[in-house]
Structure formats: C-alpha cells, structure tokens
Design a protein that fits this description.
The protein is mainly α. Helix 2 packs across helix 3, helix 2 crosses helix 10 and helix 8 runs parallel beside helix 9. It is globular and about 45 Å long.
C-alpha cells in the first residue's frame, strides 16, 4: 500500500475541483462518495485518502450504491474502449464461450433478482471464480447482498485510488 505522498496524490490534491471530481468519478460513480472525498482535500498521505474512501463507502445510502453500481459494466462485458474495465475483468478475457454464455445468463438472473449489476472486485479473479461467486451470491437476501456489494465496491475503489495516486502523469 502506498503510504506517503506521491506525484499522483500531489496532483490530485492540487488539481482544480472539476478535474478532481472527474478523476473521482472514474474511480466511483457515486456523486456522494466523490463529494465526501473532494471536501476533505488535501490528503497528507495516500492512506488518508484510502481511509476517507472507506468511510465514504460505508456511509453510502441504497440510492448512492445504486448510482455507484450503474457505473460498472456486467462481468464478461467490459465497457468498450475502457481500459480500466478491461483490465479489471481480464480474468474473463480468455474464458471459453460456454463460460461467457453462462456468465451472461447468471448476470441476467442476478440483475432480475436484485435490480442491479453483479458487482465483484474482479481484479485477479478467474472467470470460473467470478462465475462461482455469482452462483453463490444469487441466493442471498437483498440486505445481505447490499452489504457484500458495499464491501466489493470498497475494494474496487481502493484499487482504483491506488492507481490514481501512483500515476506519474495523467492518463
């Protein structure tokens, strides 16, 4: 974990509000989450930013979570032209057509039950691990699933914030 000040953190701390909001929106689509992080700038260390992110994620309402999830494409179908979603979902890139078809069916069943995309921190997971996770989680109650989604969102946000603060120059 990055604990000190990095060029990316310095750039984030000193950027215009509009640029910082845009950078935060790339991390998480929840405007409430972004507003909370923006209001606490500047951050002395990356760890301070991560802790603020965790706290903001914990405070998200059901509506805020829905807004955050709306920014995530279904597993197995990363956003076209989006290197972040392609990188995060790389475990599905080499999946068989059968596994991709099964994930599509499971994604649709999950979305039908819960009303939102299946959200998982896909970084480092294989297609089979993601399939097994959706199979397991589809049996959850909506309340239990909302808390799992909150945890997964927090993991995703940390990975993306780490990339933001470790960047030598803007993408």
């Amino acid at each position: 974990m990055t604990s000190g000040t990095t060029p990316g953190l310095t750039r984030f701390n000193t950027s215009a509000d509009g640029d910082a909001v845009a950078a935060l929106h790339e991390v998480c689509s929840s405007s409430a989450w972004g507003s909370k992080l923006l209001a606490q700038r500047p951050y002395a260390t990356a760890d301070d930013l991560f802790l603020a992110s965790d706290a903001a994620t914990a405070e998200l309402t059901a509506e805020d979570l829905a807004e955050a999830m709306a920014g995530h494409p279904p597993i197995g179908r990363p956003k076209a032209g989006d290197p972040t979603s392609s990188r995060e979902q790389s475990g599905m890139a080499g999946a068989s057509e059968a596994l991709k078809a099964e994930m599509l069916e499971l994604n649709l069943a999950y979305q039908e039950k819960f009303g939102h995309v299946f959200l998982i921190c896909a970084t480092g997971r294989t297609g089979e691990q993601m399939r097994d996770a959706v199979r397991e989680r589809i049996g959850n109650s909506p309340e239990r699933e909302r808390e799992i989604v909150r945890t997964e969102l927090g993991r995703i946000n940390r990975i993306r914030l780490t990339r933001l603060v470790e960047e030598e120059s803007p993408a």
